[in-house]
Amino acid sequence: MNAENARQCLTDIGCSPDRINPLAELVEAGRLTEAKQRLHCLRYELMEELHVCQRRVDQLDWLIRETERANREKTARRI
């Protein structure tokens, strides 16, 4: 791995320069163990964001199902 590849990958996943530059500097300096630790921290943060989004999607799915159920009940009462 080289610093330019690391920069490109971090840019592609939406990291800010404030996060990219220190990581790229670690790679350039050959401090790969520290770079790996920071990458693991970043991964943890992204996974937490994913879980928050998943809970929001789950709540929307529930609301959709409840709306469909209420609509079926309303239609059945008219018959």
Summarize, please.
This protein is mostly helical and 79 residues long. The longest helix has 47 residues, at 32-78.
Description:
The chain is mainly alpha-helical. It is 87% helix and 0% strand. Helix 1 runs antiparallel to helix 2 (17-28).
SS strand fraction = under 5%
Distance between the termini: 68 Å
Tell me the Rg in angstroms: 22 Å
Helix content percent band: over 70%
* Contiguous helical run count: 3
- Based on secondary structure, the structural category is mainly alpha
Main sheet: strands, sense, barrel: none
Task: Write down the secondary-structure element order.
Answer: HHH
- Give the mean pLDDT: 95
Q: Given the C-alpha coordinates, what overall shape results?
A: rod-shaped
Number of strands: 0
pLDDT < 50 stretches: none
Quaternary status of these chains? single chain
Q: What attributes characterize this protein structure?
A:
single chain, rod-shaped
